[in-house]
Amino acid sequence: MATNAPASDGRRRAAAARRKARQAEIITATRQIFDSKGVRDVQIEEIASAVGINRAIVYRHFTGKEELFALTLVGYLEELHDAMAAAAASGGSPGEQLERIVGSFVDYGVAHPAFVDCAQALMVRPGDELLDEIAEGPLFRLGRGITSCLTVLSDTLSHGVEQGAFDLSDDPVLLANALYASGLGALQLARLGILVTEAAPGIPTVGQISAEQVRSYLVRSALSLVAA
Question: Which helix H or strand E contains 132, and what residues bound it?
Fold first, then answer.
């Protein structure tokens, strides 16, 4: 029995490596579909076809569409974190750092509308539903991806308070979460490019708003919330 153990261990490692490679292949295909056509109405069959497998194999690797979408979102969040971290590391005053961080968030969302769709699709689900539909490991990876971005922001807010540059009545972590959530909504506004207003009492009209206007608004809003 002892002589068979190394061979058995090798087979298990090889099987685990194949499984990991297949999962990565499916996530990559999902990301490519998201980037080319968006998130709405994407079906498991379409993702399986892009990989060259049937949908049953997809469900061997993921508990369902929500879990697959969550792990695809992790890739976007990793890229977003890198952009925000680079903005924070550029030096300058806390206010300048905050301006660059918020700007980098908007720039990434405008360049990757599927990130906004994917993040919002998961955010509208109640937390207990996500816990039921996404396994512990993928849920942990998703949480780590989100917190990595939020920590860049909350650390900058805390640093600004320590230096006397910011005056916060709320916890920096709470404000970071609120800015992230409201930022996703504003990115959808930038994507639509439509501004609804009232031409006269009771008479709605539609105007236009640019992504740059949304970016400027989010930056100004963030700075106003921390003004000393």
Answer: helix 127-133
- All domains of the chain in start order, with CATH: 8-61 (1.10.10.60), 64-186+214-225 (1.10.357.10)
Strand stretches in 146-214, DSSP E: 194-200, 203-208
For residue range 39-80, what is the model confidence (pLDDT) as tens digits? 888 889 999 999 999 999 999 999 888 899 999 999 999 999
Instruction: Retrieve residue 5's tokens.
Output: 């153990």
Cβ atoms of 224 and 166 within 8 Å: the answer is no
Q: Distance between CA atoms of 5 and 140, rounded to whole angstroms?
A: 32
The gap from C-alpha 102 to its chain's centroid, in whole angstroms, comes to: 14
Do residues 140 and 159 touch, judged by C-beta distance below 8 A? no
Amino acid at the residue 47: I
pLDDT in tens, 173-210: 999 999 999 999 999 999 889 889 888 888 999 989 99
Summarised one tens digit per residue, pLDDT across range 133-164 is: 888 899 999 999 999 999 999 999 999 999 99
Q: pTM of the predicted model, to two decimals?
A: 0.87
Helix (H, G, I), strand (E, B) or coil at 198: strand
